[in-house]
């Protein structure tokens, strides 16, 4: 009895914090017939007691099973891609359909508990994006993928000049108005969440992480090994667009360092080599390209 009273009181408190807010929950789904209905029901069970306007949008990404039928049976608003177009394309379709000021995205495979949505929405009142940090919950990720995730997270944090706890978490709440300008930059595939994280971080948007549990997925993962290379290229591309000097200055310094070491050796040998000259010229060219890219970036992002 005491536990029930505490739960009701907690729901009342969070409902008060959400006064005047509304939420569109976008759920991309591809071959998730075994989980999508439960995911929608989980969201509805959490959102109904709050008494705020909300909608659940399921986008079927050309599934070959009964995902769309299960989503329709759940009572959610359902849209679909005629062919499998990718995670990013599916989310973009859902975000464009969203009618409310705040948008949440979460996967249909049962890995992200809906109970975090009210708290994340409340935090988003003073933020542009709130991201679910899977943290220790990533123990459910296959061991073979953990080194790749560690490399990507640390490399992205270096380029973004801030700690990115969870680069591609699939549970997040954001202001729709802050996301819309970045939609043309967002890719069609799994790197959607990675891209929006870098876009927000590199443009000084207000973004915070909040700890969440990460469950065991229903069905099979759709990520392929080649996606690691795609993620790496994407991080470089986005960082070059928003913060090019973060890429070009270290690269130029590396070449300059090689030139200095080779110059010392050449002086000792009393013979200036072409390699030394090439290293210095390459460093100057890299820095020049970085300055040009930085000017283009500033012109592109000018309000």
TL;DR of this structure?
The chain is α/β, with parallel strands linked by helices.
Rg: 23 Å
Any idea how many domains? Answer: 2
From the spread of the alpha carbons, the general shape counts as: elongated
Strand content: 5-15%
CATH superfamily grouping of the largest domain = Spore Coat Polysaccharide Biosynthesis Protein SpsA, Chain A
How do the strands of the widest beta sheet line up side by side? Answer: 3-2-1-4-6-5-7
- Work out the helix count: 11
Q: Give the class from helix and strand content and strand pairing.
A: alpha/beta
Low-confidence runs: 1-9
The H/E string reads HEHEHEHEHEHEHHEHHH
Percentage of residues assigned to helices: 40-55%
CATH architecture field of the largest domain: Alpha-Beta Complex
Distance between the termini: 55 Å
Number of strands: 7
The CATH topology label of the largest domain is Spore Coat Polysaccharide Biosynthesis Protein SpsA, Chain A
**Class of the largest domain, according to the CATH hierarchy?**
Alpha Beta
Largest sheet: 7 strands, mixed
What's the pLDDT, averaged over the residues? Answer: 84
């Amino acid at each position: 009895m005491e536990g029930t009273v505490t739960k009701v009181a907690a729901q009342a408190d969070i409902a008060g914090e959400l006064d005047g807010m509304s939420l569109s929950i976008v759920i991309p789904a591809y071959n998730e017939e075994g989980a999508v209905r439960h995911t929608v029901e989980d969201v509805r069970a959490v959102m109904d007691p709050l008494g705020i306007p909300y909608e659940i949008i399921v986008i079927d990404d050309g599934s070959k099973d009964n995902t769309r039928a299960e989503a329709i049976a759940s009572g959610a608003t359902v849209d679909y891609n005629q062919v499998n177009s990718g995670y990013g394309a599916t989310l973009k379709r859902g975000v464009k359909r969203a009618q409310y000021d705040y948008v949440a995205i979460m996967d249909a495979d049962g890995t992200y508990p809906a109970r975090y949505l009210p708290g994340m929405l409340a935090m988003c009142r003073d933020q542009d994006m709130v991201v679910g940090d899977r943290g220790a919950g990533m123990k459910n990720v296959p061991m073979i993928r953990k080194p790749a995730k560690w490399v990507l997270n640390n490399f992205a944090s270096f380029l973004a000049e801030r700690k990115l706890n969870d680069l591609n978490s699939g549970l997040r709440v954001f202001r729709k108005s802050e996301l819309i300008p970045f939609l043309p930059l967002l890719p069609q595939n799994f790197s959607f969440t990675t891209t929006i994280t870098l876009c927000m971080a590199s443009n000084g948007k207000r973004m915070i992480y909040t700890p969440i549990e990460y469950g065991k997925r229903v069905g099979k993962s759709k990520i392929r090994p080649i996606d690691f290379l795609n993620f790496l290229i994407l991080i470089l591309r986005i960082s070059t667009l928003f913060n090019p000097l973060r890429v070009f200055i270290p690269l130029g310094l590396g070449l300059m360092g090689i030139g200095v070491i080779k110059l010392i050796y050449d002086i000792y040998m009393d013979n200036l080599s072409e390699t030394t000259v090439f290293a210095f010229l390459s460093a100057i060219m890299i820095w020049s390209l970085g300055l040009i890219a930085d000017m283009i970036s500033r012109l592109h992002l000018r309000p």
